[in-house]
What does this fold into?
Amino acid sequence: NWKMGDFVELEIARIRELVGDRALVLGAVSGGVDSTVGAALMRAAIGDRFKAILIDNGCMRLNECEQVKDTLGKHLGIDLTVVEAGDLFLGRLAGVSDPEKKRKIIGSTFIDLFEQEAIRIEKEAENTPNSGKVEWFLQGTLYPDVIESLSFRGPSATIKTHHNVGGLPERMMNGQGLRLIEPLRLLFKDEVRAIGRQLGLHESLVNRHPFPGPGIAIRILGDVTKERVEIARQADHIFISMIKEAGLYDQISQAFAGLDTNRSVGVFGDQRVWGYIIILRAVRTKDFMSAEIFNFDNAFLQNVSRTICNQVEGVARVVYDLTSKPPGTIELE
Ligand code: XMP
It folds into this structure.
């Protein structure tokens, strides 16, 4: 429609006006539709003065990093730096099982790395035609987030500290005087998707289920270790692939496989094993504030369970989470 048609051009003009012709803009990308559309708009507006950063926190989905490099770097021509920080994140997360502590550690580690990157990028740009200061930080805020932050919420309203990968704390705003640029702040999710299509993004990216900034770490109950991330990641890949093969992906708002804290006894051949427990979750929702569980066929779930137990070493049991939101949240933590 006309409004969407004009949006891209108007927003590009607004970004150019705001940023001017010297400043650099830093932006975190995750492989999700919001950060990709934001990055594509920035690239269209200011070219290589937009610097995208992908922080690999060691808790991303299987092959995710490669996919983001392909889409943003090769396909969209965005100046992208991948910061491999899996060991740093997992090191800081070692022995931490409290959900809020996990989120805080992950959030502040993201910020540490952005600060380092901002300094490195400015240095690197010195003496090039694109020399300038990093003055802006791209944030993929959508309209519902804007409304939420405007409405009054008491202290008890904080159910979880959300860390958007694009989230920027006061420390960075005040310390480095960065300003936020939010090209999606007037859009709802379906409008972001429409813009994504208009910008030529692949349908599979445009329709992708949301993925939280802290990644698999908040889908693993208890300690986050390399081994546990790997198990959750492989199980998740199998679950999502089977959902796609069954043609169910677009009927589900968000699905994933997580990992329980405890282990459970199983029997493989004539061997007793003490294996991990995978938790499958799939929900339908309009606004992610409330959600109902997706009703799979039992035969489908049994097939997923069998496949995961057979293919992911160390898993002895698979359960399906029947909790709607509320009382459950969509993520496990
Ligand atoms: P919950 O678990 O709160 O999730 O019911 C609602 C939606 O928010 C996403 N989510 C997050 N996204 N950083 C993000 O970027 C976070 O820390 C975070 N926690 C939850 C979740 O995936 C779901 O879509």
Remarks:
- The chain is about 45% helix and 20% strand.
- Residues 103, 160, 162-164, 210, 212-214, 254, 288, 325, 329-331 surround xanthosine-5'-monophosphate (CB under 6 Å).
